[in-house]
Structure formats: C-alpha cells, structure tokens
Design brief:
Layout (H helix, E strand, L loop, with lengths): L13 E12 L6 E12 L3 E5 L6 H8 L7 E6 L2 E2 L5 H11 E5 L10 H12 L5 H10 L15 H14 L4 E5 L7 H18 L3 E4 L3 H4 L4 E6 L2 E7 L3 H11 L38
Parallel strand pairs: 3-8, 3-9, 6-7, 7-8
Antiparallel strand pairs: 1-2, 1-4, 4-5, 9-10
Helix pairs in contact: 3-5, 4-5, 5-6
C-alpha cells in the first residue's frame, strides 16, 4: 500500500485527489476517452459539486475516485492511500471503512427497517456503531420517528434521508453522492441537499456530489465543471444564477457526441420555484 501526505493549498487537508486520471473504454474505432488526464483535489470538510453534460465524464470521475471503477492511467488517493496500489479486497475494505455512498435509487434493503439499513454496512463489517454519533446523525436528518419503518412505508424523501444517514453513520472520510435528488420532488430534494450541506458545516464531513441541476449545485461550496472528459472550469461559493451563467459561458464547448440521449450535452435548468433559487442555500430545518 503506497502512502503519502495529501494536502491542498496552504496546508488544507485533501480528502481525495485525482492526478492525470485517464479512463478509456474500448479500442480502435470504438475507443472512447471518458476521462482525459483529469487532476483535481477534493478538500476535507468541503462540499463539492461536479457538473457536466451527459457523457462529460462526471459520473466516471466520481466512480474512479470512489474506488467503484478502475482507471486506465494516472493516480487516485483517498486520504493518504493510493488506490492503484491496492488489490480488490483492499479496495473493498477501503470503501467499506472510509467511504460513504448516496445513490439516486436509494439502494435500501426492503426487508430491513430504517435503523437496520442505517447500520447495515457496519453490521456486515462486524464493527460496533458509535451509538452517540449514529443518534446525532439520525437527529440531524429528522428520522427518530421513522426508525422502525421499512422502505415501502417511507416517502421518497424519507428513504433518501435514510440513505444519507447510512452514508454518514460510519464516520467516513468522504461521502460520494450520485444525483441524490434525481428521484425526488423539489421540496424533498431541497431537504436532502440541506442535510448534506449541514453534515459539512456541523460534522465537518467531506461531500462530493454529481449533479446536472444548478439549484442543487448551489448548495455546494464549490462546483467543478467537466466537458469531454476534462475539467473546464471551477466555481467557488456558487449561486444557482452564477452556475447558470457559467454554463451559458461554457455552452459552446460543452457539447459531446458520446451520448445520443435526447437533450444530452446540456445541463438541467434551475428550478426557479425552489425557495432562494438565485442565491446561496442555507441548510433547512432539522425536522420535516
């Protein structure tokens, strides 16, 4: 296992780092470069959003940095651990012990209660949960009165909050969220984003989120823009309007032929009916 100290500007700790990361699919005429020598730091205790049109490489970047997918060349570190030096069992252990995940589809086990889903990764690992920490997470997410419910008894927003609690319960070094509001209405989505934001501000958690929605990106501290497998821009303290302006500025270079889905190559429009869509978002109330 290769290790080195990972710090960012002015000694700021870096939770994850990609250096000249390249991911290639196929060969010859079918060869597609999903990531083209991408270098990026995700700083500790910061909320970073990754945006880009369909086929830009945003999900591929997250999957490679999270250890969910291998890469063709370059380097990926989580904390001080170099992923390229690990065997598959070691990567599995690292994901289990140091990484939390929130997916669009919730991925809850239907036969388990909310509490059982929250502690499942630690139960599988044979680790005893830090009960005080777990209770703090449950309280922050407003789930105390839903712990005995199974997923089918919960709304979509409540299921995603359980998924967020599961990601935070083991106190991971970093949480990766892939379109976490994609299956939620605007109200439930705003609450989940607020809870992710609050986990950074209150618990000093590190969150990296892939999204196509400028309103969702405005909850982050920083937005990284990808196009054609490369980072093309970086925006700090974003607002939904600032993100939209940046998208318009970059729109001439953000198209891609890698995805033939209708509308591919564009970003989601901001949901201007969401409260405060034009400004920085504060975390919502702690209960629903």
């Amino acid at each position: 296992m290769t290790t080195s100290r990972t710090t960012g500007p002015a000694g700021t700790a870096v939770a994850a780092r990609a250096t000249e990361l390249t991911k290639v699919y196929g060969q010859g005429e079918t060869r597609v470069v999903a990531l083209d020598q991408v270098s990026v730091d995700f700083r500790a205790a910061e909320f970073t959003a990754i945006m880009g049109p369909s086929g830009s490489g945003k999900s591929t970047l997250m999957h490679c940095v999270a250890g969910l997918d291998d890469f063709t060349s370059g380097s990926v570190r989580i904390g001080e651990t170099e992923l390229g030096a690990l065997k598959e069992k070691q990567i599995t252990r690292l994901r289990r012990d140091k990484v939390g995940f929130v997916f669009q589809a919730f991925n809850l086990l239907p036969t388990l209660t909310a509490r059982e889903n929250i502690t499942l990764p630690m139960d599988i690992a044979g680790r005893k949960p830090d009960q005080q920490w777990v209770e703090n997470v449950i309280d922050m997410l407003g789930l105390a009165d839903r712990l005995g419910h199974r997923p089918r008894q919960l709304s979509g927003g409540q299921q995603q909050r359980v998924a967020v609690a599961r990601a935070l319960a083991s106190r991971p070094e970093i949480v990766f969220a892939d379109e976490p509001t994609g299956n939620l209405d605007s109200h439930a989505g705003a609450e989940v984003l607020g809870f992710l934001q609050n986990s950074v501000r209150t618990f000093h958690q590190t969150v990296v989120m892939v999204t196509h929605d400028p309103v969702a990106a405005a909850y982050a501290d920083r937005v990284v823009f990808l196009a054609d497998g490369r980072i093309v821009d970086d925006l700090y303290e974003p607002t939904a309007n600032a993100v939209l302006d940046r998208v318009r500025t970059l729109s001439g270079g953000l198209g891609t032929a890698q995805d033939n889905t209708p509308g591919a190559g564009g970003f989601g429009a901001a949901q201007h009916d969401a409260p405060g869509a034009g400004g920085r978002h504060a975390a919502p109330r702690d209960t629903v």
